Amino acid sequence: METHRKFKKQRQPLYNAEGVIEGTLNILPNLRKLKIDKINQPVKNPHFKFVVDSSGKISGFKRHPWPMFDPTTGAKHEYTTPEDTGFYYNDENFLGVSELSRMWSQMLEYAKWNSAKVKNPEYIGYEETNKLVNKIVKEKIYNKSFYKRYFRPIKIDCKGNEGACKFHGTFITLKTWADDSVLLHELAHQYGRDHDSRFATAYLMLVGRFLGHDQQIKLMDSMREYNVEWNGTFQHSKKCFTEHGYTDRAKNAGGQCTTGATKMNLGFKTEYLHKRLG
């Protein structure tokens, strides 16, 4: 899709289209693990026990510290049986023995564990996370000849855990939920604050180079579906299509892939946005 003369805003269509990209952490580390001092961890429920009737048959289980029998009346108190779960055995609602067994097993497994806050052994804090992330991104992205040719290094600030990741012109804010595709999305904003065709082209280039041509092809297909426009043409070789499972497209493909370590696609404006703004 070539749009060299118009730059329409297409934020929501692009957000919809990029949902096909796989969430990876091959570039970024897991920010949540580095910045959250305490994490949820399953611990054994000390109160879990099976309830056995007078014949020695397991009739249910307990998950709470309350007494099994009321000390005054001797009545059974607070334990779960298969009948209590809402499983039905009558003809109208019969689930089958295998399904009932699976559901009961799941309930037992859930009852054996509690969730507890424990100290995160990978926690390094905000400042150290910033240092580590900027070091990693510099080594894996900024130092590459492809990136140097078309983009510039941007400082990354991992401030906050919730909310949107943002491009601020001179730096990027990444939240703890960010993955590799989010990082590339923000870097692509060097070619447009709006999600116009310049931005979409830069994003496709970064995805193809750092996430792989398979992800780039998926993203292009999804962009077409949502009518997202970009500049120039991204071509892929017969070998590339075949290796990534697109055998139907390999038949008509020829030559080499448009993108690579040093090649930019046709129609892309190489002038940086920050220079135009400056």
Overview features:
278 residues; alpha+beta; 2 domains; three-stranded mixed sheet; 7 strands; disordered C terminus
Q: What report would you give on this structure?
A:
The relative contact order is 0.17. The protein has 278 residues and is α+β, with helices and mostly antiparallel strands. The strands form three sheets. It has a three-stranded mixed beta sheet. A hairpin with a 3-residue loop joins strand 6 and strand 7. It folds into two domains: 179 residues, no CATH class; 79 residues, no CATH class. Helix 6 crosses helix 7. The protein is elongated, with a radius of gyration of 28 Å. The longest helix has 18 residues. The N terminus and C terminus are likely disordered. Helix content is 37%, strand content 11%.
Topology:
Elements (H helix, E strand, L loop, with lengths): L10 H7 L13 H5 L2 E7 L4 E4 L5 E5 L34 H15 L1 E7 L5 H18 L2 H6 L4 E3 L8 E2 L3 E3 L6 H9 L8 H14 L2 H13 L12 H6 L3 H4 L22 H5 L1
